[in-house]
Structure formats: C-alpha cells, structure tokens
C-alpha cells in the first residue's frame, strides 16, 4: 500500500469517524478516507473545518479525536486560524496537511506547516520517512489525547503520500488521567474547611473530566456558590440555588459580588488566564486555590496560594473524600443565607434588565431575541453557543443552561464565525439535539458560506443572526438579506422585524431543524450594546 492508504487505515484504527477539510489532499482526492470507512466532509473555508472538529472534540469531552486535512501551500495558510482556535480552547484534533514535495520544502517562499504551526499545536512533525508513518501519526494522537488536550499536527509532503510502504500493524493510542498529590489535596481541604465563604470557579476541565457530579457534590457539601468560566458554562446547572452563572465580559451581577466576597476562591479545571472574558480573582484578603491538569498555568497570570495538579474529576473526588473523612453529616449553617443572597441579587439584577429583555421596541432589541430563545427552547435537548462580539455578551449572562455540555463557550481571543463550525460539530455527534448558534452580521460575513456545507452534508443547525447593519459598535455599515441567502443555499430562511414574532419564528426554526433542514433566522435588531457589567451598573 502507499502512505495515503496507510494513513487512512491508521485513522480508522484510531476511531476517526470524520475527515474534514479541503482538497487537494490525497486523503480526499483518492477516496482513501472513505474507503477506510471514514466520512469525508469538504467545507467552503478551511478554518471552518477545524472549527467543526473542535466542536466534535468539545461535545464529546475530548473522547472523540477527529482528523483535518487540506492542500499544501494555500490550504495550510488558510487553516492556521482554525488550528490556533483549537489550541487556545484546548480542543484535541489531529491535523494532516499536505506539504510541498521534499525537494521544495525549504525553498522560499514555500509555506511550511512544520515551521509555522509550532506555536499553535501541541506537537508538529513532518513525515519524511514513509516507513515511520505509523509511529509519526501515533505521536500526534498521543499528544492530542493526553494531558492538556490540544492539536497534534503531521505535515505530509505531497510526494510522500505516494511512496509504497509495508502493511501497517497499528495499535491505537489510549488516554490517561493524572491524579493529585495527596498532600496538595489535604492542604486544599484545610483551606476550604476553614473558609467563611468559599467560592468555586469551574472551567472547561470539568467538562473534559466529566466531573459534573463531583462538582455538584462538593458545592453542596461546602454550601459554596459556583461560578463557571465561559468555556465551563453548563458544567454546573444554572438553575441550581448555588449557581452564580458564567464569568465573561458580560456576566450576572451575583457572580461578581460573590467572587469578591469570597475568602477562598477555588479555581478548578481553569487556567486563570488574565482576560476580559473571565473572572478577575481578588488580590487581597483571600486564598486562591488553583487546580488544573497543566502545571504551566499555575502562577501564570495570578499568584496562587495552593496548587492541586490533576484531572478535575480525580481532584474533586479526592477532595470530597478528604472532607468527608474530617466532618460528620452536619452542615456549615450558611446554605440558606448564601442561596437567599444569591437569589436576592439575581432578582434585583433581572428586574433591572426586564425592560430590555422584554422590549417591544423596533428595531428589535437583541436582548429580546436572547430572552425569547431562552424561554422557547427545551434545555434538555439544546446545545448552544454565541459568536465573538456582542452576541457573546448578550448570551453569556441571559441564556440559562441546565445540562452538561449544553453550551460550548470559549475563553480568550476568538475569531468571528467560530460558532457555526462548533454547532455543526455538535450536531454531527448529537443529531437529536437542537444545535443553535447566535451571531452578528460581522460573524456571518466571515464563515457564512459554510451554511451551504450544513445543507449539503445534512447537518441541520439553527443559525440566528442579529442583524443591525453594523459591525458591533464600530460604526462600520454592513448590509445583506441573510434569510434570502439561506434560502438560496437550500436551507430555510426567515427575516423577522416585529418583536412579537420572535418566539414563533424560533419555534418554527426548531421544528424545521427536526425535519432535517438547516435554518437561518435573521432578526433585524437595533444597535443596543449595553452590557451586564459591575462597572456599568
């Protein structure tokens, strides 16, 4: 067999279900992936392909590591953004871009993935020896699956694809988890038990570890409020009395209040990166405990007092066991007071925002769209996300999620148009779910043509466009009739101008997706951009 067929066989052995990307790459062109039982999906824009794989990885808690492929040269140049996004969000994928032939690899100005992708992948290799095909691809999967999960990349020069190799005897890689140091667990338990008001900040590591139940157990045991990062949103049910919601540029009022009242802040499965899209830990009169599976995050931006390194589920279970070994079944006596205070602050905050959320003004207030979406969809059957910019800031505090992995958030710098691919990935894994993405007219301009990919590949996502004919608050005019565009691509499109019709349109959109049709609902909105932030209230 040749290297192309060998790689396809290896992907099948690794449990890859989808090869997503763009020709010209022999894995697509020679039907190698399809013949190995892998579904090929060709996208309109390379980075959207990486975003779809990102969504698959995230919605499966990192269990499903899929493959990306693209053309040498322009394909690899176009793909950097998608791979970089997966790297930033710790999403495991394996990228197999073609490269220039070995004779031309180092000829200027040939684009080299080996050189240029090193900053946005966990491992980067070039396959130059056909006989090393198995071990080279194995290293990429091993890196992607273990530790802090991130992309592994192997560039395959286009002449290498056609080299003959012996039959591959390949064994797939496995995933491992690391447990915490018992002394670190004991120290963390000391701090949590001595706290007057401990607060937990849960990140995406809770999702990857599937640690939702032990997180809830620890919160209820300590009678401690729980905030999440935007990546961690849905790790803790937001209808729980101890929930503070998700920290972001726009966030619930009760979250900021309790984070700054806490005498112990326990960050779990998070990086504590200094960002406008996350919480800012208090710097005085508190204890900061940081638990992560990546030691490189500890003290990176904020100095922690205690560090517990390990898989979030193993850490939580160890801390819960340690606390149970020290206390009886009596409570701390703060549950009623804490939950009443959360409820009171939340009620006041929602009252202050009621006029905006329920506004009857035209053009439609964008918060009205988010409010109706929140009230209309079944939270047990939804997966949602919002794109960068104002769509994120409208959704993060006001779209409530109750089920694990029912929201795919993101944490740091993020590309416009990211959410379309995320929801396509989620829908591939969970066709029974309503996968909804809220974006602005800036985002649809970046990746909107891949709505056609959703139609062509039978991936019935629900796209909601908040169209205010402007790029956020930058006073840059945009135009377009996006509902007509959706219809022209073979999907269902509807433009809505009356706030009284918002809920009905969402209901119709949900039903259309259940019938198997991708949907784009375009809401003509005003330029309202006020955010739920403590410094603005």
From TrEMBL:
<dbReference type="GO" id="GO:0009099">
    <property type="term" value="P:L-valine biosynthetic process"/>
</dbReference>
<dbReference type="GO" id="GO:0050660">
    <property type="term" value="F:flavin adenine dinucleotide binding"/>
</dbReference>
<feature type="domain" description="Thiamine pyrophosphate enzyme central">
    <location>
        <begin position="186"/>
        <end position="319"/>
    </location>
</feature>
<dbReference type="Pfam" id="PF00205">
    <property type="entry name" value="TPP_enzyme_M"/>
</dbReference>
<dbReference type="GO" id="GO:0044272">
    <property type="term" value="P:sulfur compound biosynthetic process"/>
</dbReference>
<dbReference type="GO" id="GO:0009097">
    <property type="term" value="P:isoleucine biosynthetic process"/>
</dbReference>
<protein>
    <submittedName>
        <fullName>Thiamine pyrophosphate-requiring protein</fullName>
    </submittedName>
</protein>
<dbReference type="InterPro" id="IPR012001">
    <property type="entry name" value="Thiamin_PyroP_enz_TPP-bd_dom"/>
</dbReference>
<feature type="domain" description="Thiamine pyrophosphate enzyme TPP-binding">
    <location>
        <begin position="387"/>
        <end position="522"/>
    </location>
</feature>
<comment type="similarity">
    <text>Belongs to the TPP enzyme family.</text>
</comment>
<dbReference type="InterPro" id="IPR000399">
    <property type="entry name" value="TPP-bd_CS"/>
</dbReference>
<dbReference type="InterPro" id="IPR029035">
    <property type="entry name" value="DHS-like_NAD/FAD-binding_dom"/>
</dbReference>
<dbReference type="InterPro" id="IPR029061">
    <property type="entry name" value="THDP-binding"/>
</dbReference>
<dbReference type="InterPro" id="IPR045229">
    <property type="entry name" value="TPP_enz"/>
</dbReference>
<dbReference type="Pfam" id="PF02775">
    <property type="entry name" value="TPP_enzyme_C"/>
</dbReference>
<feature type="domain" description="Thiamine pyrophosphate enzyme N-terminal TPP-binding">
    <location>
        <begin position="1"/>
        <end position="106"/>
    </location>
</feature>
<dbReference type="GO" id="GO:0003984">
    <property type="term" value="F:acetolactate synthase activity"/>
</dbReference>
<dbReference type="InterPro" id="IPR011766">
    <property type="entry name" value="TPP_enzyme_TPP-bd"/>
</dbReference>
<dbReference type="GO" id="GO:0030976">
    <property type="term" value="F:thiamine pyrophosphate binding"/>
</dbReference>
<dbReference type="InterPro" id="IPR012000">
    <property type="entry name" value="Thiamin_PyroP_enz_cen_dom"/>
</dbReference>
<dbReference type="GO" id="GO:0000287">
    <property type="term" value="F:magnesium ion binding"/>
</dbReference>
<keyword id="KW-0786">Thiamine pyrophosphate</keyword>
<dbReference type="GO" id="GO:0005948">
    <property type="term" value="C:acetolactate synthase complex"/>
</dbReference>
<dbReference type="Pfam" id="PF02776">
    <property type="entry name" value="TPP_enzyme_N"/>
</dbReference>
């Amino acid at each position: 067999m040749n290297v192309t067929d060998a790689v396809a066989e290896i992907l099948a052995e690794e449990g890859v279900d989808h090869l997503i990307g763009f020709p010209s790459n022999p894995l697509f062109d020679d039907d190698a992936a399809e013949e190995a039982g892998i579904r090929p999906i060709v996208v309109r824009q390379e980075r959207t392909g990486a975003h779809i794989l990102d969504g698959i990885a995230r919605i499966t808690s990192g269990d499903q590591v899929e493959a990306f492929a693209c053309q040498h040269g322009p394909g690899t140049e176009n793909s950097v953004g998608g791979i970089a996004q997966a790297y930033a969000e710790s999403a495991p994928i394996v990228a197999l871009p073609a490269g220039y032939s070995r004779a031309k690899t180092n000829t200027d100005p040939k684009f080299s993935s080996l050189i240029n992708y090193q900053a946005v992948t966990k491992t980067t290799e070039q396959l130059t020896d056909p006989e090393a095909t198995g071990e080279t691809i194995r290293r990429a999967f091993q890196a992607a699956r273990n530790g802090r999960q991130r992309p592994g990349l192997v560039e395959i020069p286009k002449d290498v694809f056609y080299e003959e190799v012996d039959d591959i005897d390949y064994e797939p890689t496995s995933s491992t988890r690391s447990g915490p140091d018992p002394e670190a667990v004991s120290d963390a338990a000391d701090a949590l038990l001595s706290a007057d008001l401990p607060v937990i900040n849960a990140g995406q590591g809770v999702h990857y570890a599937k640690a939702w139940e032990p997180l809830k157990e620890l919160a209820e045991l300590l009678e401690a409020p729980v905030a999440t990062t935007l990546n961690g949103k849905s790790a803790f049910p937001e209808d729980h009395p101890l929930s503070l919601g998700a920290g972001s540029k726009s966030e619930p009022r009760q979250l900021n209040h309790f984070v700054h009242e806490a005498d112990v802040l326990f960050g779990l499965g998070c990086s504590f990166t200094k960002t406008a899209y996350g919480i800012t830990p208090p710097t005085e009169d508190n204890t900061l405990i940081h638990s992560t599976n990546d030691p490189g995050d500890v003290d990176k931006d904020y100095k922690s007092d205690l560090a517990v390194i390990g898989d979030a589920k193993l850490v939580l279970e160890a801390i819960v066991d340690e606390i149970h070994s020290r206390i009886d079944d009596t409570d701390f006596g703060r549950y009623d007071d804490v939950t009443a205070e959360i409820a009171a602050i939340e009620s006041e905050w929602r009252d202050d925002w009621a006029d905006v959320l329920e506004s009857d003004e035209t053009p439609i207030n964008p918060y009205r769209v988010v409010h109706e979406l929140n009230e209309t969809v079944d939270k047990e059957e939804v997966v949602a996300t919002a794109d960068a910019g104002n769509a994120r800031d409208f959704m993060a505090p006001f779209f409530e999620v109750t089920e694990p992995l029912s929201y795919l958030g993101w944490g740091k710098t993020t590309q416009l148009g990211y959410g379309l691919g995320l929801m396509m990935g989620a829908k591939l894994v969970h066709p029974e779910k309503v996968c909804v993405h809220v974006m602005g007219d800036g985002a649809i301009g970046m990746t909107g043509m891949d709505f056609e990919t959703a139609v062509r590949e039978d991936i019935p996502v629900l796209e909601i466009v908040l169209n205010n004919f402007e790029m956020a608050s930058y006073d840059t005019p945009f135009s377009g009739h996006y509902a007509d565009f959706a219809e022209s691509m073979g999907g269902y499109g509807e433009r809505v101008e009356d706030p009284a019709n918002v809920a009905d349109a969402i209901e119709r959109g949900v039903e259309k997706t259940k019938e198997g049709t991708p949907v784009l609902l375009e809401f003509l909105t005003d330029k309202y951009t006020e955010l739920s932030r403590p410094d603005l209230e």
